[in-house]
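This part of the workshop introduces the protein records we will be handling. A record pairs a protein's sequence with a compact description of its fold. Backbone structure tokens are a discrete shorthand for how the chain folds in space. The question running through the whole workshop is how a given chain folds. The record below serves as our worked example for the rest of this section.
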Amino acid sequence: MTAPSLKHIAFASFIGTAIEFYDFYIYAMAAALVIGQVFFPASDPAVQSLNALLTFGLAFIARPVGAVLFGHFGDRIGRKSTLAASLLVMGASTFLIGLLPGYASWGLWAPVILCLLRLGQGIGLGGEWAGAALLATEYAPPGQRAWYGMFPQLGPSIGFLLATLTFLGLSLGLSEQQFEQWGWRVPFIISAALVMVGLYVRFKLAETPVFAQAQSAQHLHRWPLKALVLQHGRAIVLGALAMAVCYHLFYTATVFCLSYGTQTLHLSRPFFLGLLCVAVIGMALATPLAAWLADRIGRRPVLMGGQGLAILLGFALVPMLGSGQGAWIVLFLFLALFLMGITFAPMGAFLPEQFPVAVRYSGAGLSYQLGGILGASFAPAIAQALVQHGGLPWVGAYMSLMAFVSLLAVWQMPPAAAHE
């Protein structure tokens, strides 16, 4: 097979993350809007919201399992086939959620199977990001690794925008009853077509030259995870802590704020979804800017600058979100997602650079997914609990704390590639 063009590589690394994060975000929005009513109808509204957000967090617990599972095969047999398998697992789980009957039809089995499918989503997504990042960066020309590592980082913003627009269109076109009965299922079912596109693109790829060289030289490990944990444990922990604020900013601004805005501030669902469509532009703008800067001034200065600003943004949460005014809310959401892009884009190159080729898929993926547990898994549920028991200022303090932890972690990590 001939080597693909760099444009093909960039598109292939982008399309997979866009599809998989679209799948993940449609569940996040469904959890904030309707999952509680469909699968936990016996509870009061506050408990419904909490149960729905807890099912959202389940997939983050499964993501490190996916990182280990797919990382093993990605470091043993190659990036290409492993990436295709992760996309298939994620896509099948998402499609089946769209077909799953609610509590009214299947009783207790409905939320139980929902949780299992959420675990399937998490396992699939756990194998996605690291493979896409390696696909881009291991093909990247010298001096442009952060730029090419940006393409899988663009996937989440585009996936989120597609998810938000889909739910916005359904909210505008359907009655509340129609949306709750069947409308929310549409984004899950149509995701199957997107997955087929992603699989087609990825099956046309060749293996990355860096991995192919290591494979031919027999520089691979029989058990990559064992070598990773024994030799690179510190890099895993620091990488996970460094990633935490990216996830925290995103899911606080989207899942928690969407739930808080519609249920506590009583803003309409279409209005708040419209605000999020505007705000995600901040992430899309910040991603290429941060990647460009990371190739010129280094990964750490860009990351630490964004994390420092995120500490300050935590103090702005109460006056901006708590105002209940659309202009202040959309500004807060825009700033949160802009800083998410700043702290996220360089990670496409920075995390893989912390590990040698033989354990890079496992190492980058595990760090990334453990960061998801720390920064996002139950962050919306924790934020919801903080609001109920302490008030909105505690949510802002939570955000600032996560940003500070990530800043300290990046400060402790090597500034340049140690394994090239």
